[in-house]
Amino acid sequence: MSVQHITSLVSSVPPALHYGDLPPAKHYGIDDLDLNPAGIVVSNPAVVNAIAMALRTSTNYKAVSNGFTWVVGACGNGMELSAAGTTCECPIGYILRPCVLNQNWGGIDGATCTAPSQSITLTFE
């Protein structure tokens, strides 16, 4: 079974998604600039389940999988999923902050604060 959430994020506009809408993981993104249409993957089932649980319960989590340091942690008014090893910062990388109430909602393979408009897909399989 695959559960997917796709959200289109517009540059300089806060997102409307709430974490309660996320399914209980593979994480990958596709953006309008085609920077990385293949996205990135967590293949370790234990890490996938832990990421999903951390997002669902708003708890912190950190693990390394497939060459990325995955972090779930608080940022602004909600939780953040980061493959950049940090939370609530603006590194180049893969970050999703669907509950933040400003334009710093994350990004795919590029700017993660005030990023260009793009669609980000989060899939749990």
In short:
This protein is mainly beta and 125 residues long. Helices cover 10% and strands 37% of the residues. The chain contains one helix and eight strands.
If you had to describe this structure to a student in words, what would you say it looks like?
This protein is mainly beta and 125 residues long. It has one domain. A hairpin with a 2-residue loop joins strand 4 and strand 5. The termini are close together. The N terminus is likely disordered.
Which range best describes the helical content: under 10%, 10-25%, 25-40%, 40-55%, 55-70% or over 70%? 10-25%
Please state the oligomeric state of the protein chains shown. single chain
* Count of alpha/pi helices: 1
Q: Summarize the helix and strand pattern as letters.
A: EEHEEEEEE
Helix and strand composition category: mainly beta
Number of strands: 8
**How would you sum up the major sheet?**
5 strands, antiparallel
Number of discrete domains: 1
The low-confidence parts are 1-5, 16-33
Question: Mean pLDDT score, rounded?
Answer: 77
- Output the strand order for the largest sheet: 3-4-5-6-7
Compute the separation of the termini in Å: 6 Å
Q: Report the C-alpha radius of gyration, rounded.
A: 13 Å
**How large is the share of residues in beta strands?**
35-45%
Q: What shape does the CA trace take?
A: globular
What key phrases describe this protein's structure?
mainly beta; three-stranded antiparallel beta sheet; disordered N terminus
